[in-house]
Design a protein that fits this description.
heterodimer; A: 1224 residues; mainly alpha; two-stranded antiparallel ribbon; 43 helices; 4 strands; 1% strand; B: mainly alpha; 3 strands; 66% helix
Chain lengths: 1224, 302
């Protein structure tokens, strides 16, 4: 029941929606038309406004001309307006009075002045004062149309309120009354109920009719009218069919009454020409009938309603209404059936109502089918709705018949009967006038006939019957030139093929006889698809037919494939398919038929897959069977033969087909070799086959064969890596690995001879790829066959060989392989050889192998240059770097820890000398790195050597030669002026080594000498540096001396003075001794400092610019200042710290005096000032400190000495006044 | 020609030195020690000057030492066990004999740490601590005297006081406030001092022990024993087998060793031998056994 309600609502909704859509479309179109009209008007107004000034001018010109023409003067110039007042004639004629322009009269908007009227108005215009055109006020903006979204919302709201609420209301009202009549108010008699029903229905009808007259309530009232009629019909129905309201016993009378009411209802509602009103009335009537059904005969009301509906629908062409009526009719019946069938006591055999039901159902079908036959719908929508109704009619009939299932044995005959009926009806001349109806009914009929057969027949009978039916349809279509039947034939054939395939026997149970239906069907379909179109060309006119026949053709191929599978044994299926593929491809080529050729290709693919999946599982040669060998070889051979048929298709496709076939064949042969041969020999056989393929490709210019051969080379490469390199079994005196891998390597080199596919870069890369693979395998073979430490040696030897060959044969890829191999050898040395401590005669294996590798790396760098490859120019340098690194590491391993720095120093020296001799930049820089490493090693190792009781400390004899070495490098570079050392000069390598030498010495002294004597040792070093600087004239030594002086000052102040707390130093470590010695040595440096000052700062090639500016430049130019003031300050502090307090002032005074005198001697003002300052400091100290707390003895001694000193100074000042002036 | 002579000389010297070095097979501890000593000494030298000018008074140093000892002693659980008390008394007796000859007259106090490893350390103001682990390594009372003399000299030479000053300056602490003092971790005194300070403490500590009638050779034996332990430790860890391992070790030791810049024990023993020779102490060979050996065993078993 709910479903019925839903249907009613859906029907109402769809009908209303359609009407509303139409109305909305009309309104929108009208609105758009109005908007475009407004836009056109607006544009015209703008256009007019734009032309207004020009028009005014045009008007003004004739007016002026007329005004001038009226005056007696000469004619004015024709062109107006002139730029100056017209004076012509002004002497004879008094000038015309200037008339102001008339006030502008506003024109009424309803009748605007047109351009044609303006010239007629006499407007007095002065010639000299044409007023400017008045400013045109901007046109008011056009109010935009209400936005579409807002408009839609308003419409929706309006629509809901006016159209839907009333329908819903009346539906609910009618339903309520119906229920009342059917079930409620039991105390009221049937007559009362009927009376109430009529009263309510009538009242509603009357009220609605009254209201309907007023336009405002028109929509509302029509819904009420529909509902009222529905109620009246139901009341009439209830008078007999509803027990609670039964007042009428005669079924005929009831039927007549219902017909009467239905007629009245229909007649009345038709007045309104409203599908909604009529539909609402009818559908509500259906619903009410559904509520009150009791016996099968009550369904006759449905028949009546259906009849009424059919009449109305046909008359008014309200075909949508008929669809819903049809649904309501069958659904009413369904609900009645369901009540019956779901009753627990129901028995189909004991239910005679079912036969009546069948008759009633057939009546429904007949009514609606008749309606369909006799209608004349418009093409398009009406035809579509009609088609829907036609399909629904048969579908619902069959569905309900199936549901009630009164006689299942009659299903075949029912389907066949209905099918034949539909088919026959479809052929009626009345129907043939409407193509759609013909198609619908014929299709229904043909489908039902085909569908009926399985209800009676099965298996092969069904296959043959369907095949016969399909052929019958097909030939009927061919002979009658009706494509519809041909298509039925094709579809039925497809169905038959599916059925044949579904019931086809398995291969085990097969045989030639079992494959007969498949073969027959395949041949029939091939005949239909290939032979028929050659006889009747019109079969291919339609695209659909063309496609259908292609489908048939491919179906035939599928059937043939299955037939072959069923017919032959398991092992030979692949061969059969390959042969079938070969045959079909050949036939396709002969008949110029692409589909056949394509099927041949597909069958070949199937044969390939079948061969892969099945034939390789068969027993092989080793098991005493040759089936696998024979069948796979045959398949592969057929593939190669099939490539011959490809010459008739497009070249590109032909190439693809050939490549596919040969690839498949090659793959099968590879797998065959894999299956039949021992694992280690598989790669050899593949490599040999690869050579054959590339040779064949090269010989016959077949890129596919070449590509396969090349790919095979790669596969062989990986196969060897995975399998053969592990084959360590003995093979005679050799290993199986050595034999097989050697074969493969040879074949790969042979393969590279013919492997070039084309002239492209990619084609040219293939030989390189194979040679690289061969080289890699060689390296891998060496790795597998040789003991670990000798692998690197063999690799680098091989690299050397390849490098020489590459250079000789001008094959750059060999050179690259050689370089990579050498790099690998280098890595192997690092990883393996340096850890090989096993003895080998008198040396370790590490020493022997790593030395060999290093030597060969040096040789390699010399003989493997690839000048044609720019990117590899730096490789020789890289390999010398690698060799040097190996030697350096070897030294680390082989030498004692204390000797490593010496070893690295020697290595650096050798490399440096070679670099100089050969002018090799990278060799020199390797030497520099080795020397730097030696210095770092000294810092972290040699300086840590414990003090032992040896006559000479190992720290000394392992580091001092290195210092000498650094100075040698400096000296060697300093004396060179060749251009090839430019970079060395830019990097100031010489200077760096000079500093390293001095740093080494200073560091050794720092750790070797007793801590308190370090400053003295440094002072000695400083003296030596100054002497060297003076002797050689190289100021770098002076700079180092200056830096060392700073270090001495720092260390003395912070270590020697304050290191030992407040306790006296042990004998021999007293600061007076250590610092005093240091100060003396520094003062001795003045001997060289003055000479160096006089020589001046003359920059040399290796002097750093740093020393050419700022305080460093000053230090460079005045070394005597440093070498005086550093010891002077140190002595001052020393005296203050070490002497008894009472003697400090006195000692300072003496020091100041000495300084003063020395200054006089050397004529250095700064020294003199320093001495004087110290003396003055003494004076201040006396005044502030000594006078108060010194011991009396010290006090007077201090005073005396200081006084004398001051007097002496004063004396000298007096005496040498001129000298002082000069010095000043 | 000149450069050829120079080259030949250099090469000959290098080869000669290499041959000698290979023959001598000198023991070379590879590591950043030399650089670390250099850096640590420089750091100390840099700090020594300002510290020398702002030295703490003895009273202030004693107060700080007492505060630190009281704070840290709370976590070391003084034992009421008779063995521990006997060992404590023994350490105090030996320490007092040695400290009596120190230059600075401070209230030296000696503490036996029952649950402490093979280490000894000193706090400013006179507190010296020795762990049971270190005591168990000793054979003679003279060795104990050498250790205590070494720690006394760290105090006597202001090493501890200067470290407090330095830490206070670096951590911006008010040394007069106990709440700030306890922020100085005890590890600062436990990790040792610079090489110069350690060698100074070695020499002066040996001198103190000799003055207290102990044998200077005990200090030599002690450092030889430490050297053996260090070598055993090195062998257990293994010498580097590859250059990469050596670089890794240098980096590791560089990070770790900056905070532990003790000079190698062999060098310390060598220096003390030199001191013995210089001072003419070769005849002072008689030693006294460690009186608490059995007590240490009993204390350890508990």
């Amino acid at each position: 029941m709910e479903l019925l309600l839903l249907l009613v609502l859906i029907g109402l909704y769809l009908a209303g929606r359609r009407r509303d859509r139409q109305r909305r479309e009309e309104l929108t179109a009208r609105l758009d038309s109005l908007e475009s009209g407004v836009s056109r008007l607006a544009s015209r107004v703008y256009a007019l406004e734009g032309t207004k000034p020009a028009i005014e001018q045009r008007i003004a010109a004739p007016a002026t001309a007329k005004a001038v023409a009226k005056s007696p003067g000469p004619s004015p110039p024709p062109v107006a307006p002139p730029p100056v007042p017209v004076r012509a004639g002004s002497e004879k004629i008094p000038p015309a009075p200037i008339v102001p322009p008339p006030p502008r009269v506003p024109t009424p908007p309803a009748a605007p002045p047109t351009a044609s009227k303006k010239p007629q108005e006499a407007v007095p215009v002065a010639l000299t004062s044409i007023p400017p055109a008045p400013k045109v006020p901007p046109s008011p903006p056009i109010t935009p149309a209400r936005p579409l979204r807002e408009r839609f919302t308003l419409e929706l709201e309006q629509h809901l309120g006016a159209n839907w609420l009333n329908k819903l209301g009346v539906t609910i009202l009618v339903l309520g009354v119906s229920f009342f009549l059917a079930y409620q108010l039991g105390e009221m008699g049937p007559a009362g109920k009927v009376l109430v029903g009529y009263l309510v229905g009538g009242g509603l009808l009357a009220g609605s009719i009254l209201l309907e007259r007023r336009e405002r309530y028109e929509v509302f009232a029509r819904a009420g009218i529909g509902g009222a009629w529905a109620l009246l019909f139901f009341t009439t129905y209830a008078m007999h069919h509803v027990e609670a309201a039964r007042v009428l016993d005669s079924r005929l009378a009831s039927l007549l009454l219902m017909l009467l009411v239905a007629a009245a209802m229909t007649g009345y509602t038709l007045r309104y020409r409203s599908q909604v009103v009529t539909g609402l009335a009818l559908l509500l009537a259906f619903w009410t009938v559904n509520i009150g059904r009791e016996t099968v005969y009550s369904l006759t009301a449905g028949m009546v309603l259906a009849l009424a509906l059919v009449v109305i629908a046909g008359w008014r062409r309200w075909y949508e209404l008929e669809v819903f009526g049809l649904l309501a009719t069958y659904l009413n019946h369904f609900f009645w059936l369901r009540t019956l069938v779901e009753d627990p006591g129901f028995s189909r055999q004991a239910s005679p109502e079912l036969n009546t039901s069948s008759v009633i159902l057939l009546s429904y079908w007949a009514i609606f089918r008749a309606s369909y036959l006799w209608r004349h719908p418009e093409p398009g929508h009406q035809e579509q709705v009609s088609t829907l109704a036609a399909l629904l009619n048969t579908s619902l009939l069959l569905g309900l018949l199936k549901y009630q299932a009164a006689r299942p044995d009659l299903a075949f005959w029912t389907l066949l009967g209905v099918g034949v009926a539909e088919l026959v009806l479809g052929q009626l001349p009345l129907v043939r006038q409407r193509r759609t109806a013909f198609v619908v009914l014929s299709s229904l009929g043909a489908t039902l006939i085909v569908a009926s057969i399985p209800f009676r027949y099965g298996g092969a009978e069904l296959s043959f019957l369907w095949l016969i039916l399909a052929q019958a349809y097909f030939f009927a279509g061919v002979l009658t030139h009706e494509p519809l039947f041909r298509r039925f034939g094709v579809l039925a054939g497809i169905l038959a093929a599916v059925q044949i395939l579904a019931v086809s026997p398995s291969a085990e149970a097969g045989g030639l006889q079992a494959s007969l239906p498949l073969t027959t069907a395949a041949l029939l379909f091939y005949a239909n698809a290939q032979a028929a179109p050659r006889r009747w060309a019109e079969l291919l006119e339609s695209r659909f037919d063309f496609v259908s026949l292609r489908v048939l053709c491919f179906l035939a191929g599928l059937l043939a494939l299955v037939a072959a599978w069923v017919a032959v044994g398991e092992a030979w299926v692949a061969v059969a398919w390959a042969a079938l593929g070969w045959g079909l491809a050949g036939l396709g080529r002969r008949l110029d038929e692409g589909d056949l050729y394509l099927q041949g290709v597909i069958l070949s693919a199937a044969a390939f897959l079948r061969g892969l999946a099945v034939n390789f599982d068969l027993p092989g040669w080793a098991e005493g069977s040759t089936v696998r060998l024979v069948t796979v070889s045959l398949v592969a051979g057929l593939f190669y033969l099939s490539t011959r048929w490809a010459d008739w298709i497009e070249p590109q496709k032909a190439a693809w087909v050939r490549a596919t076939h040969t690839s498949a064949a090659a793959l099968l042969i590879l797998l065959l070799a894999y299956s039949e041969l021992a694992a280690a020999w598989t790669a050899v056989s593949w490599a040999a086959y690869g050579v054959v393929l590339v040779w064949a490709g090269w010989r016959w210019k077949r890129a596919d064969l070449s590509t396969q051969g090349n790919l095979l080379g790669l596969v062989v490469f990986f196969r060897v890596l995975v399998v053969n390199l592990d084959a360590s079994e003995s093979y005679g005196l050799l290993t199986l690995r050595l034999v097989t891998v050697s074969f493969v390597i040879g074949l790969l080199y042979l393969l590279s001879r013919w492997s070039k596919v084309d002239a492209t870069d990619w084609g040219g890369a293939l030989p390189i790829l194979h040679r690289s693979a061969a080289a890699f395998l060689l390296a891998a073979l060496a790795l597998s066959e040789l003991a670990s430490p000798w692998v690197a040696v063999s690799w680098v030897g091989l690299a050397l060989l390849l490098g020489v060959l590459g250079r000789t044969m001008r094959l750059s890829d060999l050179t690259i392989q050689a370089k990579l191999l050498a790099a690998a050898a280098f890595a192997a040395v690092l990883i393996v050889n340096l850890g090989a401590e096993e003895p080998f005669h008198a040396v370790t294996l590490r020493l022997l192998t790593a030395s060999l590798v290093a030597a060969m790396l040096y040789a390699f760098s010399r003989w493997s240059e690839a000048r044609e490859l720019k990117a590899l120019e730096q490789f020789p340098a890289a390999y010398t770097w690698a060799a040097s690194l190996v030697i350096g590491l070897l030294l680390w391993y082989e030498l004692e820890p204390a000797s490593v720095a010496l070893g690295w120093g020697l290595l650096g020296l050798v490399l440096f000398e070679i670099g100089l001799a050969r002018r090799s930049e990278h060799m020199r820089f390797q030497g520099y790195v080795a020397l730097g490493a030696a210095f770092a090693r000294v810092l972290v190792a040699n300086l840590n050597i414990d003090v032992v009781a040896d006559p000479v400390s190992p720290r000394l004899y392992t580091t001092l030669p290195l210092a000498l070495l650094y100075f040698y490098i400096y000296d060697r570079l300093f004396s060179q002026t060749e251009n090839f050392l430019e970079w060395d000069r830019q990097l100031r390598v010489a200077e760096w080594h000079c500093y390293l030498g001095t740093l080494t010495l200073a560091a050794v002294f720092r750790f070797e000498v007793d801590l308190d004597w370090v400053v003295a040792s440094w002072a000695m070093l400083l003296l030596v540096l100054l002497a060297v600087a003076w002797h050689t004239g190289r100021r770098i030594f002076l700079h180092q001396a200056m830096l060392l002086a700073a270090a001495i000052a720092f260390r003395t102040l912070l270590h020697n003075f304050y290191q030992r707390s407040h306790f006296p130093a042990p004998p021999g470590y007293e600061p007076l001794l250590t610092v005093g010695t240091t100060a003396v040595l520094l003062f001795l440096g003045l001997l060289f400092a003055f000479r160096l000052r006089e020589r001046g700062n003359r920059p040399t090639a290796t002097d750093r610019p740093l020393w050419q500016k700022g305080i460093l430049a000053w230090l460079d130019g005045r070394p005597e200042q440093v070498l005086f003031f550093v010891p002077f300050v140190l002595l001052t502090v020393l005296l203050a710290l070490e002497l008894p307090r009472g003697l400090v002032t006195m000692s300072w005074g003496l020091l100041g005096l000495t300084a003063f005198l020395f200054a006089l001697r050397v004529g250095e003002r700064s020294y003199r000032l320093a001495g004087l300052a110290l003396l003055l400091l003494c004076v201040a100290k006396i005044l502030v400190l000594d006078v108060w707390d010194l011991h009396p003895r010290d006090r007077y001694l201090t005073f005396i000495v200081l006084g004398l000193a001051l007097m002496l100074v004063s004396f000298f000042y007096s005496r040498h006044r001129e000298v002082f002036r000069r010095y000043l | 020609m000149r450069h050829r002579i120079f080259l030949l000389t250099t090469a000959l010297l290098l080869v000669g030195a290499l041959l000698v070095s290979q023959k001598q097979r000198s023991e070379v501890p590879v590591g950043p020690d030399a650089l670390l000593y250099f850096i640590a000494d420089m750091q100390r030298e840099l700090s020594r000057l300002p510290v020398a000018f702002t030295r703490l008074s003895d009273e202030e140093e004693i107060r700080i030492g007492n505060e630190l000892a009281r704070y840290y002693a709370a976590s070391w659980e003084p034992s009421d066990d008779p063995s521990s008390q006997a060992i404590q008394a023994y350490v105090e007796r030996v320490g007092s004999q040695v400290a009596a000859r120190a230059r600075r007259k401070l209230p030296y106090r000696f503490h036996y740490l029952r649950h402490y490893g093979a280490n000894a350390f000193a706090l400013p103001g006179g507190h010296v601590f020795i762990g049971s682990g270190l005591l168990r390594l000793l054979d003679t009372e003279d060795e104990l005297a050498a250790i205590l003399g070494h720690e006394i000299e760290h105090i006597d030479h202001y090493h501890c006081a200067e470290r407090v000053q330095l830490e206070g300056r670096l951590r911006r602490l008010r040394l007069e406030a106990i709440s700030d003092l306890v922020r100085i971790p005890i590890g600062v005194f436990q990790v040792g001092y610079s090489k110069v300070e350690e060698l100074e403490a070695d020499a002066e500590g040996t001198r103190l022990a000799v003055r207290a009638s102990y044998s200077p050779l005990a200090a030599v034996r002690l450092f030889e024993k430490f050297d053996e332990l260090a070598q055993a430790y090195e062998h257990a860890g293994g010498k580097p087998r590859t250059p990469q391992e050596e670089v890794g070790q240098i980096l590791r030791e560089g990070l770790k060793g900056y905070f532990r810049s003790h000079p190698p024990s062999a060098e310390r023993a060598q220096r003390i031998r030199a001191l013995i020779a210089r001072e003419g102490w070769e005849a002072r060979t008689s030693t006294r056994p460690l009186a608490v050996s059995e007590l240490l065993v009993a204390d350890g078993n508990r």
